[in-house]
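// run 5 | inverse folding | seed 20
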């Protein structure tokens, strides 16, 4: 993490968070460029000497500056929509390093990705194989495909972010995968290039990854015996981060466990999202007021669930950092927002002495923060700033109220 206290004041790299809040206003997302670079290198280093492709999962944080930074570091991208592909290309990403995941790709999205020349489609169903073959035929192209296999392992994470169990909507059950591969190999406008899985997010143990990869390798060997030769194995994303007291393996520890399982002739593809950006980010809000209802003290910020959904959506516990260090001691309080929902909370039962006008930051906000934000309650979305050393660059302007109704229109007078 690139934040620390200096003279009792919260800093991100060498920038004072209070000064940034003054300059750019709140609510404010801050990202540390060095933290993203270090996280990327933590994956890239252990992969040296292996054929590999690190495809950053764009949905974690899709700001163009973040994508551009990762593209310059050599990353590919894991996308789940045509919109994400457009973002990757606008940010200077290489479409030849893009893998396209998702259970509901439209024909238009398939055509867009085929024309862009992506690395491969991570196909999630037999229906998708047929659709992709038809779209590629219309364009006179051949679609490179990997099949997303559901290995039926328990990722031991929050049920909303576990994706590798047989009851989930993702991928093709591993027992049915050989048939799906044979079908893919038989379709003239598809070329089978790989196999992939993604078993969940915020995993804090390596064992579920190991179990899943072993199953994928078994499948790969079986396919080879059937004459279907794969060139890559995509082990997905999902490596967890430490928000408060979790102790996930580092990328190096994780890779030390999984790389030896994978035959050297296969290119290793990874799809990390959270692990590259979560701990690079802070969400900063200002206290509007405090309130004690006789049972509980509430610290009410100018930011809430519309800016950061994770606490209410996943019961995620995220670190609370008073910008003045001394305020991290104080009465036990709930940190809430102004949105009209009981679920509008950012943290519960935290010691916090902040009062009206003080600043509070939420750590670990670089992943699934801004990308999941909304304008609910007609709240313009936050500004985003990239910090590097003692410099700060506005990478997304704060939305205005006019942005709230852009594209809307009144009914014509005659219609009422
Ligand atoms: C969300 C997602 C990822 C990234 O997951 P993280 O937990 O952020 O690493 C990777 N691959 C697929 C298919 C995804 O849906």
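// decoded
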């Amino acid at each position: 993490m690139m934040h620390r206290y200096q003279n009792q004041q919260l800093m991100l790299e060498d920038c004072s968070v209070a000064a940034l809040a003054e300059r750019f206003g709140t609510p404010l997302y801050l990202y540390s460029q060095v933290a993203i670079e270090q996280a990327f290198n933590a994956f890239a280093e252990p992969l040296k000497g292996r054929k590999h492709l690190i495809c950053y999962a764009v949905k974690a944080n899709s700001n163009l500056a973040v994508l551009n930074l990762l593209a310059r570091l050599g990353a590919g991208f894991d996308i789940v929509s045509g919109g994400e592909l457009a973002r990757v290309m606008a940010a200077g990403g290489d479409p030849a390093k893009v893998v396209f995941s998702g259970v509901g790709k439209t024909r238009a999205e398939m055509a867009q990705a085929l024309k862009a020349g992506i690395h491969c489609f991570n196909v999630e169903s037999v229906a998708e194989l047929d659709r992709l073959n038809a779209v590629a035929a219309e364009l006179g192209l051949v679609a490179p495909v990997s099949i997303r296999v559901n290995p039926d392992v328990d990722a031991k994470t929050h049920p909303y972010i576990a994706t590798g169990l047989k009851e989930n909507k993702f991928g093709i059950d591993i027992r049915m995968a050989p048939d799906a591969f044979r079908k893919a190999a038989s379709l003239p406008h598809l070329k089978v290039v790989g196999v992939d899985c993604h078993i969940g997010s915020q995993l804090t143990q390596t064992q579920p990854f190991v179990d899943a990869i072993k199953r994928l390798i078994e499948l790969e060997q079986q396919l080879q015996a059937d004459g279907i030769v794969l060139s890559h194995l995509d082990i997905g994303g999902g490596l967890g981060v430490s928000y408060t007291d979790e102790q996930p393996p580092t990328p190096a520890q994780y890779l030390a466990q999984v790389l030896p399982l994978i035959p050297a002739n296969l290119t290793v593809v990874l799809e990390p999202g959270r692990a590259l950006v979560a701990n690079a980010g802070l969400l900063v809000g200002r206290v509007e007021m405090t309130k004690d209802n006789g049972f509980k003290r509430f610290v009410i910020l100018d930011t809430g669930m519309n800016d950061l959904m994770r606490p209410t959506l996943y019961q995620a516990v995220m670190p609370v950092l008073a910008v003045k260090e001394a305020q991290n001691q104080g009465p036990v309080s709930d940190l809430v927002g102004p949105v009209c929902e009981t679920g509008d909370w950012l943290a519960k039962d935290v010691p916090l002495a902040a009062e009206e006008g003080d600043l509070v930051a939420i750590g670990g906000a670089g992943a699934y923060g801004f990308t999941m934000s909304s304008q609910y309650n007609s709240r313009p979305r936050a500004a985003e700033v990239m910090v590097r050393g003692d410099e700060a660059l506005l990478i997304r302007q704060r939305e205005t109220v006019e942005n709230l109704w852009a594209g809307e229109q009144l009914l014509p007078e005659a219609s009422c």
